[in-house]
Structures are given as structure tokens and as C-alpha cells.
Amino acid sequence: MSAIAQLAQAACAGRTSSAAASRKASSLAAPRLAAARRTAFTAAGSSKVAQRSSVVKAAAAEAAAPTAQCTYETMIVLRPTMADEERDQELAKFQAFLQKQGASQLSDMVRGRQRLAYPIKRFTEGIYVLYTYTAAPTAGQAVQKYLSTPQAGAELNILRHMTFRV
Length: 166
What we know:
- It is built from four helices and four strands; from the N terminus they run αβαββααβ.
- The chain is an alpha+beta fold.
- The chain folds into two domains: about 1-65; about 70-165, Alpha-Beta Plaits (2-Layer Sandwich).
- A four-stranded antiparallel beta sheet has the order 2-3-1-4.
- A hairpin with a 2-residue loop joins strand 2 and strand 3.
């Protein structure tokens, strides 16, 4: 045999032995890898469960805390043909309602007469009033309900209203 043939045969023999050795090593390593993956997966899953339970506990504690205060903004659009006295009476009624709900840090800003984006009850302008206050979390819903239900004269004076939690 020539030297080249001997080298080729040795190279082929080396490849098969290394391939067989790698197959044998991978078959031994496969169970270890699978066990490591299962351990990592269950550890990650348990940490996600722990995170979810801590979020649920925090939300429950926040809901149970009676001293929690939220900051709200309420924008009211009034009829533009209202007299100043009539407007002041309407705003005083709303401020009294907010104080009854336990609102604090109450501030109001009359932004004045502004053009509406679209006609509301045949009016193209409105008087915008912005209220900012701090109150209990249930106050936002109470304000929306108060402004949505028609009181004596209020259904004609208030064109639109919206309350936001800041």
C-alpha cells in the first residue's frame, strides 16, 4: 500500500472512531441535559407563580387600604348662554357634591368660552370648567353618576362632562 492510501485509511478510521465516541457521549449527556432543562423550567415556572401571587396580594392590599387617595380631573362643558350667576350656582352645587364625597385639594379653573368640535344641542360653543381634586377611589364613579343623572335644571346646563383618574 502506498503512503497516501495508508494516510487516507487512518483518517477515515479516526473519523469513525471520533463520531462513535461523540454519539456515545451525547447519548450519556442527553438524560443529564433533559433533567437540567426540567429543573430550570420548574424553577422559572415557580418564580412566575410567585410573581403572580405577589401582584395579587399587592392589589388586594391596595383595595383594602381605606386611606388610599386618587387624583381626579373632571372637565365640564356648560351651556354658553348661561348667566354668570347661574353658572356660579351650578359650579357651587358640584363643589358641594365633591366635598360631600370627601374630596380634598379641590381646585377649579374656568377656562372660558371655547368653540366645540361639533355642535351639541345646537350649540357651537361652550364654557369649559376644569376641576382637579383628590378623593377616594370610589369618588370617580360617583361623580360620573352624579353628572349623568338629570337634576333640576342641570340637564339643560351641562352639555358634556368627563372624569379622568390622573
